[in-house]
Amino acid sequence: MSCTVAGLNFLLTTVKEEPAPDFARKFVDTTRHPFPYLLVNIGSGVSIVKVTGHGQFERVSGSSLGGGTFWGLARMLLDCATFDDVIRLTHDGDNANVDMLVGDIYGGAYSNLGLDSSVIAASFGKATMRNDPPELPNFSPCAPVTATDLSATFRQQDIALSLLRMVSYNIGQIAYLNARVHNLDRIYFGGNFIRNHPYTIADISFAVDFWSEESMKALFLRHDGYLGAIGAFIGASSDAPTKIFKNQKQSTPSSDTRHGAKGSREHKQRASQHANSMTKDAMHPVDDLVLTKPALAEDTSPPKPRNGMMEVPNGTAKRKKSKRTKSEDRASALTSPMANGNLTTTAQGNKDSSATGHQKVSTGDWTTVTRTRRKSACKENGQTFASELLFVIRAILHTSQ
Ligand SMILES: Nc1ncnc2c1ncn2[C@@H]1O[C@H](COP(=O)(O)OP(=O)(O)OP(=O)(O)O)[C@@H](O)[C@H]1O
Ligand SMILES: CC(C)(CO)[C@@H](O)C(=O)NCCC(=O)O
């Protein structure tokens, strides 16, 4: 955990365009005031960590309903071989076919409570409503409805989306409650459960917006997958960035007197000076990045820029207004934002997606590639992963010069 926190602290204080709300990629500059914040790390389980400074953090909460719950239930309920297959399946799903909505109970909105008819009243609740004989194959009035009967009556893609929303909304809600208890308004979500999947990101964002009535922001990280590795690399020290400078000075004591300076302000100035002085061929500045479009496997068309930013989910976060519809979700998740209009399509570095070339993108993942490295990153999924890692390591080494 200390490595993960140290890695995130490094990114927040050093890399200009790291966190962004939703997948809008309107980056939030946290380099000046990174603390305090809440980190919600969604691995198999969920750890919720309050971070107040370099090396200062406390695990304030957690939940056993995390990525392992999603993936485990998906394996039980769905015929999917891989995690990415499940995520892909959600893209065609309509959770209203599986979830019990407020409208299913009341025939419309429950206005007095500010609940729109489309609000999920009970995840998977529709399964309790399916006991109508004609709907079930092999139904016998005397026999109980079996799991097999039930699963045959629901579409796999609807189950997948219901599952994703159940887990994501729950985590978003717990995150919001913890942020509120600890008086924090910035919540970073990380961990392999997210993996830059637009639907996952949209769902978590939605939950935080919904419960906080848009007073808090869910933030996602471009280099989420590398937090622990970065933290381990820099030594997970409480003064990690300064430590890098110290080390550098020790190894090359007379090369540059600036290396002796301590403190985050000098550190940042130096990082910025270096970034500005770098040539393309040597090392790219830390903000010289291009975001690539999120795309579905079958989607090979270039993304459409929309005034340089993403269409965020339309449905409001306020309880009184309705939750997003499926089509709004899809539009928001698949319409691509581009910070600077420099668009490219690339293969994605998923662990379990086959490297089929850049025209066959696995799931709707975001990938960042440098302008100078764009072509090579497009070649193979593995290369994208490698170039990402290389970028982070270079950023670390670069700031230490
Ligand atoms: N290709 C994949 N295969 C399996 N799970 C995946 C894959 N991609 C993403 N995931 C998700 O990532 C989760 C595991 O995340 P991660 O590797 O960060 O956790 P962990 O470190 O094992 O968990 P914990 O911190 O609880 O020990 C899985 O439960 C699943 O939801
Ligand atoms: C046990 C860990 C910390 C392992 O990384 C993680 O899976 C987790 O935070 N699980 C949730 C445990 C809880 O309920 O607080």
UniProtKB/TrEMBL annotation:
Catalytic reaction annotation: (R)-pantothenate + ATP = (R)-4'-phosphopantothenate + ADP + H(+)
A GO cellular component annotation in the UniProt record: cytosol
Keywords per UniProt: ATP-binding, Coenzyme A biosynthesis, Cytoplasm, Kinase, Nucleotide-binding, Transferase
GO molecular function per UniProt: ATP binding; pantothenate kinase activity
Biased composition (Polar residues): 245-255, 333-368
Pfam families attached to this UniProt entry: Fumble
Biased amino acid composition, Basic and acidic residues: 256-266
Swiss-Prot/TrEMBL GO biological process terms: coenzyme A biosynthetic process
Source species, domain of life: Eukaryota
Major place of residence: cytoplasm
Record's subcellular location: Cytoplasm
Pathway in which this enzyme or protein is active: Cofactor biosynthesis; coenzyme A biosynthesis; CoA from (R)-pantothenate: step 1/5
Chain positions covered by the region annotation Disordered: 245-368
Family named by the database record: Belongs to the type II pantothenate kinase family.
Name of protein: pantothenate kinase
Organism: Chondrus crispus
